[in-house]
Amino acid sequence: MCSAAESQAWMLCPQCDLMVKLPDVPQGSRASCPRCHTVLTTNWPEPRKRPTGYALAALFMLLLANLFPFITMKVAGLSSQISLLQIPKVMVSEDYSSLATLFLAFVQAIPGLCMVTIILLVNRIKMPVSLRLGLARILFQLRSWGMAEIFMAGVLVSFVKLMAYGDIGLETSFWPWCLFCLLQLRAFQCVDRRWL
Description:
Elements: H1 4-8, E1 10-12, E2 19-21, E3 29-32, E4 39-43, H2 49-67, E5 69-75, E6 78-83, H3 86-93, H4 97-122, H5 129-142, H6 148-162, E7 167-170, H7 174-190
């Protein structure tokens, strides 16, 4: 049976399932899989700052994306503008209240909650151990339920279809939403279970 120190030195590559013995990684470097070159571990200087920065920036971009118009559509001389907060209102007015609830939960609330949870857990804010463990479990279970980037892909596909009917304009909050999608994915990539 392996000792605890020996079992820490081996890691299964998440991409190709190669068992790799991890070398000592100097600060500022990373260890990659020799077969598929997937990053296995990194040794960043001040590693807690990176996920905190990404999570804070993602929350700020989410706030900006909700404050301004998202897209504008011009068809036959008529112009219509919609913001992210108006999307659920339109769904409710069209008798799609359950879809509006799903939109708010999976596209806005869960990704925002995950970013707040990353900030709380990575920065070691004082809280009971049971709460910390519960938050960590919730974070790693909810991270796959955040659908902000799926919504973004749907919007881009819709643009292709709607261009045949009129002009589509990208408004002020479209770009913060794109940045929110990228930053939240990056925050998840930076989170290491050892810190939680």
